[in-house]
Each structure stands twice: as structure tokens, then as C-alpha cells.
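tool=predict chain=A
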Amino acid sequence: MTNDLASSATDDTQHYGHMTAHRIVVVDDHPLYREALHGTLSDCFADAVVVEAATVQELSELLGEKPSPCVVLFSLSSPGAQGVSSLMQLRAQYPNVRLVAVSPQEDQATMRSCLEIGVVGFIPKSLPAEQIREAVKQVLQGEIWSPPELEALQGHDEDIEQLATRLAKLTPQQVRVLNMLSEGLLNKQIAYQLGVSEATVKAHVSAILQKLEVDSRTQAVIAVNKLDNRDWRGATL
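tool=predict ok
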């Protein structure tokens, strides 16, 4: 895969390179894959500035330094990532970022979960280099890209789509609280980690329940886990 990404990039420079300047952030814990993506994107999109991050923390630092519009290719296996929950938090925290999920998992549930919460692309790690270049090209042009095999599948899960719409209403802090609820933390523990009062946490929990249209913390956790396919955990390149 790495050699495929790095090869023949120069041949496509003329085809893809004459585009408005863009900032592309590649987030992946595997250095060879990350560097290969960096190289092929830099060569193919001559006007793009491509930077790398190995962890969620590094990505946050990069976006904090320059939160201007950009495209982020985010690996679900990156250290600190929590699957779809991380994507939701990034979308809420950085609304100007066009977020693309990159995953070693290629099942329909993972793809749909990512796309239904509003990411603009899903790139399986096994995708050939030419298709990766085409996917990034479409995203840079403001389009949404998904694998052809997903587009060929019929039917949608209306319950999941409605849930994704409700989850999108959460603020960044509410997404953090929901993630902590999913980890089984109590209000006191959440308050300590966030540096806020327990009363503030209770207010966030109440708002989460209202926005998700559920009656309890347990139902809220069950709801988010419907979207968050945990099979990517421990997956290798």
C-alpha cells in the first residue's frame, strides 16, 4: 500500500495541481502510511500545504494554532481516537474543518456511521492510490466522497440517521461529557477532569438527554454506541 501511494504521483501533478491553495492535515499513528500520504498529496496537489499529526493531541495543537478552513484525513486508529465519538467532537469543535475518516475497517456500518454524522469522506486504508487521489480531489472541491461499493448499497437506517441528526446538535463540551458517560465516569469524576462544578456537569447531562430525546444516562450511552462501531479498536494497518 505504501509503495502504491508513493508511486506515480508525479504523473498526476498536472491533472490535480492547478487548484486553489488548501491546507491538508494527515492524522495517522503509522509513520510509513502517514509519510506516504503526505508525499503523494504534496506531489499531486501542488498548491496544497500538507502537514502531519500522529495523535489526536497533535491534531488539536495544529488546529489550535491555525483554525482556518482545511481538510483533515483522520485515522480512526490514531492514539487518543474514540471512533465516531472523536469525529463528532472534532466536527463540533472545528466547524470550518472538512473531516475525512480513514479506517482499516471497511464494513458498511462503520462507513455509514461516519458519513451520517457529517464527515465529508470515508477512505478505507486498502484503497488504491488513484482512488485516494480522486477522493481527496473531490473533497477539496467541496464534494462528499464515499467508496463506490457503499454507494451501490440500497437502503438507509432511518433510526440511525435521526440519531446522527440529534447528536450533531451537541456542543463540543456536551460531546466530551457524553464520551465520559460512555466510559462509565460519575458526575464528580467528569467535573474533576473538565475542571468544572458538578452542577455544570448535571446541566450538560440534562441538555444531552433533551437533545438526544432519551430519559436516562444509560439510554444516552446506548444511543451513541449505536453509531460507534468499536470493531476498529486494535485493528492494524
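Residues 59 and 65 are 10 Å apart (CA to CA). Confidence is low (pLDDT under 50) at residues 6-20, 230-237.
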